[in-house]
């Protein structure tokens, strides 16, 4: 009679010696062979994969050794310290933007006063080596509790800028090329009225040259247009510049805002430094962004921006100072400088959502819809003339700043990839 | 017609493959030979060292790529036939070894024994001076290596500021539980010492915050102590981890074997205790299960010198991340989790992960963030991909669940008490959460895998025997005793020799003893296969059978082994 019954385990009752390895082996017993993680048939099935993967494996193994050696020598720690991820007094940041190209920004913190930063930056275009930018900058120098002083000297030479004509009806096929050389010197004083409200003034001097474009594929601007047709084409135009600004930053996290409002109001005047000034204008702009946390840091970003340019009677605006649609900061998916005119209106609707969040740092994705247009007068901007753009984007951010941003945007004319790193 | 042939061919191919997987045709159960003892004397292996960055790179990049090209593994996953662990005995258990010693789940310990854990003494002597022999100023928490007045060596680690008891409490509680389950752990003590007993040893090397190596000076001690909270009596609470005797050989890896250790013959990713560790790590929220938190020691014992494998550094368990409270997403995602990121991308942001809904407030600073409301043991992810965890099968998880559910409430209370939490509410919360997570694991895996276990044969009147077993789900209170039904099928050499018998929760159930009459003997041993199934209510499907193999010889009836 075999009886099956419920019962409970008592210690050691599983078997006589249920959990002991074979201890009968002596020192003379040959060592057992190491077990393979694969059986014979598994080796056969995996063989093609092994053949394909072996070169990669060798590469990865070599890389691992390299990483190990570098890490043991603290190269990564030093690099991380250089790259601003550590609280150090000086460092270097690699930069990239589609306009300025690849570059490096060297900085030193806490110069003159605590919190101030000195920057030295240079960048050079990859595809167009003549595209270059250099700058020296001092920012955030404390002058009492309220005021912050800044100054900047910059030289930039963009050898392959594009010009399509002026106005919303400019055509893509009329593309021309020019080089824009610009040197500027400026000083600024910001009053931190409150934690979120900053009022500022900025005085500067700008020297501009328009030169033949570096492109072999497009006609240079001087071959198509005359000075009479295109104000600003001549060498060398120098301007005094003054700006007053008011900024309200109600965002809850500068690197990755998911709530709050950002508002910027600017009024600028450009006065030509000449005995017989032909150029001169004032410009006002307003830019508002609203970050709405729909749920769990899924953010709807609404942005609206307007720019109005007024000229004094008999004076003109150099074409390269006209309001532009086509830069990353405006609407995406258009060639740089695609639309130029005195006034501009654009907006954007963006849905941002996290792919990975790590203590305030992270990666997110976005779907966006941009729209906008230029006009000689902002009241003439019609919704039906707005250029629509759709796209997706990915951002890598830290708590404090946006580290990298890649955006792929599609307009009626082209698909454009914008990439910026630490820029 | 052609499509029919193709379909048939495909089915046949699948059948052949499944046959290869399952070794079909084998009817007679033969117990696997025991693994050779792994404590034979060997010459001292070399120290292994891999920087955490290189380890990060290896498991996140190289290992993931290698798995993509491992077609046999892919096939196994496709057909649901993952490779089982290689160090199992006939009872689906793990033999004692230099890695693991069966303790509480097979040989129940008293609550006091659980609370004492691996401790052989009372911790460092705080009456005499402590001589600092090295200092640790880098890493997530500062610390010292000291020699106490008795000449014992300890690593002293501190709690983060503002979170007294957090890391030290977690380290001690987890040490007790890991040890009781069967892992090798160091002796970790809570100690309270007067900083005046610290004295700087001779020529102590020190690496300062800027990475410069130099000799340590008194100011460095003061600097470290500035970052440590004092108790009202001026003393400092710290974690004292006693140096393990032997020669350290660096961490063990969760994949492959150590080339220079001939005792180490089972690829580590196929060791059940390391695979099952995934479920244990999930229970204790031990997210930092990297190689670096393990240690191989070359030990000498009874005239033999061999490698023993330790789990160390439990400061980042329970609600602690060593440097502060655990981040809320820990345990839910790897550091870099491409699969999850792709899923999030495709979802357009509408996939809200469970941890995102949690309140991040730390209610008990001494406990940190440790909760059970979003806990899903099968979805636990450590900080870094772990090759052994990735090989986990349901049987491995079931085994780990046995270890975890073997802890009684009283044993858990003893482990928590060892953490010496000053706030009774905090320790009550920790105990409650440990129990809740234990029960979530038990409910999940005891439903997934038929939870009949601990079989034993008891002789009554010749020729009668009783087969005893335990329904672990009922024992743990996860299933209802009255509604559970069992079904028994008995086979011999693949042939059913008795009609199915169903019975309720109140055995015994008589089976005709003449059953052996129809069983052929192989080498003078008769064998029957008892297939046991259960269902939790009369309308539910029967769960997969547990097969218990009984051998009858002149010596009587014994259990040859079990299969799940």
Q: What does it look like?
A:
- The complex is a heterodimer of chains A (about 425) and B (about 575).
- Chain A is mainly β.
- Chain A has a domain at about 90-350 and about 375-385: Porin (Beta Barrel), CATH 2.40.160.50.
- Chain A is built from three helices and 19 strands.
- Chain A has helices at about 40-70, 75-80, 220-225, and strands at about 1-5, 90-95, 100-110, 115-125, 130-145, 145-165, 175-190, 195-210, 235-250, 260-270, 280-295, 300-310, 325, 340, 345-360, 360-375, 385-395, 400-410, 415-420.
- Chain A has a 16-stranded antiparallel β-barrel. A two-stranded antiparallel sheet of chain A has the order 13-14.
- Chain A is elongated and about 105 Å long.
- Chain A starts with a strand and ends with a strand.
- Residues about 1-20 of chain A have low confidence and may be disordered.
- Chain B is α+β, with helices and mostly antiparallel strands and about 575 residues long.
- Chain B has a domain at about 450-564: Sandwich (Immunoglobulin-like).
- Chain B is about 25% helix and about 20% strand.
- Chain B has helices at about 1-20, 50-70, 70-80, 110-115, 165-180, 220-225, 270-285, 340-345, 385-390, 395-405, 410-420, 425-450, 470-475, and strands at about 130-135, 145, 155-160, 190-195, 200, 205, 215, 235-240, 245-250, 295-300, 305-310, 450-460, 465-470, 485-490, 495-505, 510, 520, 525-535, 545-555, 555-564.
- In chain B, strands 4-8-3-2-1-5 form a six-stranded mixed sheet, sandwiched between helices. In chain B, strands 14, 15, 17, 18, 19 and 20 form a six-stranded antiparallel sheet that branches. In chain B, strands 9-10-11 form a three-stranded antiparallel sheet, with no helix packed on it.
- The longest helix of chain B has 25 residues, at about 425-450.
- Chains A and B meet through strand 1, helix 1, helix 2, strand 15 and strand 16 of A and helix 2, helix 3, helix 8, strand 12 and strand 13 of B.
- Strand 1 of chain A pairs antiparallel with strand 16 (about 510) of chain B, so a sheet runs across the interface.
């Amino acid at each position: 009679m075999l009886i099956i019954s419920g019962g409970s385990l008592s210690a050691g009752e599983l078997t006589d010696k249920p959990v002991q390895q074979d201890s009968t082996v002596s020192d003379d017993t040959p060592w057992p062979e190491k077990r393979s993680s694969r059986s014979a048939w598994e080796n056969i099935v995996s063989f093609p994969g092994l053949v394909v993967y072996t070169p990669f494996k060798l590469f990865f193994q070599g890389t691992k050794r390299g990483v190990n050696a570098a890490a043991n020598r603290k190269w990564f720690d030093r690099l991380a310290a250089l790259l601003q991820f550590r609280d150090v007094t000086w460092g270097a940041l690699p930069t990239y933007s589609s306009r300025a190209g690849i570059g490096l920004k060297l900085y030193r913190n806490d110069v003159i006063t605590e919190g101030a930063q000195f920057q030295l930056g240079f960048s050079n275009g990859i595809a167009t080596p003549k595209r270059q930018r250099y700058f020296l900058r001092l920012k955030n120098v404390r002058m009492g509790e309220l005021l912050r002083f800044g100054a900047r000297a910059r030289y930039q030479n963009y050898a392959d800028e594009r010009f399509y004509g002026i106005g919303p009806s400019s055509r893509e096929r009329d593309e021309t090329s020019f080089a824009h050389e610009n040197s500027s010197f400026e000083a600024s004083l910001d009053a931190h009225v409150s934690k979120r409200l900053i009022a500022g003034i900025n005085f500067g001097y700008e020297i501009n040259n328009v030169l033949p474009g570096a492109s072999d594929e497009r006609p240079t601007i001087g071959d198509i247009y005359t000075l009479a047709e295109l104000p600003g084409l001549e060498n060398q135009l120098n301007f005094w510049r003054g700006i007053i600004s008011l900024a309200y930053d109600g965002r809850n996290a500068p690197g990755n805002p998911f709530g709050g409002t950002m508002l910027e109001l600017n009024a600028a005047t450009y006065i030509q430094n000449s005995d017989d000034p032909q150029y001169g204008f004032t410009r006002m702009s307003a830019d508002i962004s609203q970050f709405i946390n729909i749920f769990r840091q899924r953010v709807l970003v609404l942005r609206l921006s307007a720019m109005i340019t007024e000229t004094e009677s008999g004076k003109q605006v150099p074409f390269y100072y006209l309001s532009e649609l086509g830069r990353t900061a405006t609407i995406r998916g258009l060639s740089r400088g695609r639309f130029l005119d005195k006034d501009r209106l654009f907006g954007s609707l963006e849905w941002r959502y996290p792919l990975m969040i790590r203590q305030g740092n992270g990666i997110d994705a976005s779907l966006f819809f941009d729209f906008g247009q230029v006009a000689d007068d902002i009241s003439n901007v019609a919704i039906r003339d707005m250029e629509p753009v759709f796209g997706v984007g990915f951002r890598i951010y830290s708590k404090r700043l946006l580290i990298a941003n890649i955006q792929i945007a599609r307009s009626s004319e082209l698909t454009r990839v914008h990439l910026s790193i630490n820029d | 017609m052609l499509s029919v042939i193709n379909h048939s061919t495909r089915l046949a191919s699948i059948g052949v493959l499944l046959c290869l997987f399952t070794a079909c045709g084998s009817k007679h159960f033969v117990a696997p030979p025991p693994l050779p003892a792994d404590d034979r004397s060997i010459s001292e292996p070399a120290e292994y060292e891999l920087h955490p960055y290189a380890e990060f790179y290896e498991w996140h990049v190289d290992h993931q790529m290698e798995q993509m090209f491992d077609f046999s593994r892919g096939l196994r996953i496709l057909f649901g036939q993952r490779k089982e662990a290689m160090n199992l005995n006939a009872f689906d258990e793990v033999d004692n070894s230099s890695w693991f010693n069966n303790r509480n789940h097979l040989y129940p310990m008293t609550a006091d024994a659980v609370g004492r854990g691996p401790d052989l003494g009372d911790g460092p002597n705080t009456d005499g001076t402590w001589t600092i022999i090295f200092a640790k100023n880098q890493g997530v928490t500062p610390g010292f290596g000291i020699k106490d007045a008795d000449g014992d060596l300890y690593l002293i680690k501190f709690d983060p500021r503002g979170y007294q008891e957090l890391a030290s409490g977690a380290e001690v509680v987890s040490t007790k539980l890991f040890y009781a389950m069967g892992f090798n752990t160091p002796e970790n003590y809570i100690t309270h010492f007067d900083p005046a007993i610290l004295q700087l040893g001779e020529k102590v090397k020190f690496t300062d915050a800027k990475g410069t190596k130099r000799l340590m000076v008194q100011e460095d001690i003061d600097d470290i102590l500035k970052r440590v909270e004092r108790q009202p009596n001026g003393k400092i609470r710290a974690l004292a981890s006693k140096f393990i005797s032997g020669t350290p050989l660096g961490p063990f890896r969760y994949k492959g074997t150590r080339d220079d250790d001939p005792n180490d013959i089972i690829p580590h990713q196929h060791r059940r205790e390391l695979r099952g560790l995934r479920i244990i790590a999930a229970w204790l929220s031990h997210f930092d299960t990297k190689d670096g938190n393990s240690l191989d020691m070359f030990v000498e014992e009874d005239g033999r010198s061999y490698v023993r494998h330790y789990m160390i550094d439990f400061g980042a368990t329970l609600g602690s991340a060593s440097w502060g409270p655990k981040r809320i997403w820990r345990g839910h995602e790897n550091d870099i989790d491409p699969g999850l990121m792709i899923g999030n991308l495709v979802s357009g942001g509408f996939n809200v992960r469970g941890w995102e809904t949690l309140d991040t407030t730390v209610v008990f600073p001494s406990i940190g963030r440790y909760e059970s409301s979003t806990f899903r043991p099968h979805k636990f992810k450590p900080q870094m991909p772990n090759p052994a965890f990735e090989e986990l099968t349901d049987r491995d998880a079931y085994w780990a669940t046995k270890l975890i559910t073997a802890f009684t409430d009283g044993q858990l209370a003893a482990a928590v008490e060892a953490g010496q939490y000053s706030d009774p509410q905090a320790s009550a919360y920790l105990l409650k959460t440990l129990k809740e997570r234990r029960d979530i694991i038990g409910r999940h895996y005891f439903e997934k895998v038929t939870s009949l276990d601990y079989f034993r044969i008891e002789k009554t009147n010749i020729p009668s025997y009783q087969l005893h077993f335990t329904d672990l789900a009922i024992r743990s209170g996860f299933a209802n005793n009255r509604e559970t039904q069992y079904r028994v099928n008995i086979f011999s050499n693949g042939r059913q020799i008795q009609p199915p018998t169903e019975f309720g929760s109140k055995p015994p159930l008589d089976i005709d003893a003449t059953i052996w009459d129809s069983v052929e003997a192989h080498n003078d041993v008769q064998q029957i296969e008892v297939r046991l199934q259960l269902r939790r209510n009369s309308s539910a499907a029967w769960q997969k059978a547990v097969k218990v193999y009984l051998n009858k010889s002149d010596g009587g009836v014994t259990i040859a082994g079990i299969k799940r």
